[in-house]
Amino acid sequence: DVKVTQSSRYLVKRTGEKVFLECVQDMDHENMFWYRQDPGLGLRLIYFSYDVKMKEKGDIPEGYSVSREKKERFSLILESASTNQTSMYLCASSLGGSQETQYFGPGTRLLVL
Amino acid sequence: GQQLNQSPQSMFIQEGEDVSMNCTSSSIFNTWLWYKQEPGEGPVLLIALYKAGELTSNGRLTAQFGITRKDSFLNISASIPSDVGIYFCAGQLRESNQFYFGTGTSLTVIP
Question: Exposed, middle or buried, B110 (CB in 10 Å: 0-12/13-18/19+)?
Fold first, then answer.
């Protein structure tokens, strides 16, 4: 079974704080993704990575950065949290190849006050 | 980003009824995935489809990859209360590793 874990289920932070969201997968997957999920907007891709130390912007990268120093770990960083970054953050991973399937973590619900 | 139109947005059905939902797009997809998400949890993969016309079942769930490659369908037979949740489709374009997601169908099953 693929397992994708996220470091926190719930986080409360203050405006301006630096926030780290960690994601780890245990299936040696090449690809990892960060999404945010908001009511009425569905899942939106923030950043993704196809390899260690590699990153690509998704549809809404502004205000975020990422780090992939090891294959199994993909971190999402909010340099200076703002209230409009209150959301559910979902990490996903996929093996890579012709028949792709994405597996999601349980999500981190972030509240920025 | 790509638009995936998922319908219906919500459904209220009686226990035992069958359910149908679909996703459509103007683009051609290589892969279709269907997920279920329960409140406060991440999406859980239900069915993956990789070939046009493919019909795949997972228990009471059946999904089909549309022959035009621009749509997919999910059916749930004989619904039960634990089917409650939000169902998402996701499609992968031929030339991309990214997935695009529908906005979800919220299913409520009335016992």
Answer: exposed
Q: Which two tokens stand for residue B17?
A: 């009824």
Residue A111: other Cβ atoms inside 10 A: 13
Each residue's pLDDT expressed in tens, for chain A with a length of 113 residues: 668 999 999 999 999 999 999 999 999 999 999 999 998 888 999 999 999 989 999 999 999 999 999 999 999 999 999 999 999 999 999 988 767 889 999 999 999 99
Q: Do A101 and B102 touch (CB under 8 A)?
A: no
Cβ atoms within 10 Å of A50's Cβ, excluding its own: 14
Rounded Cα distance between B86 and B84, Å, is 7
CB of A1 within 8 Å of a chain B CB? The answer is no
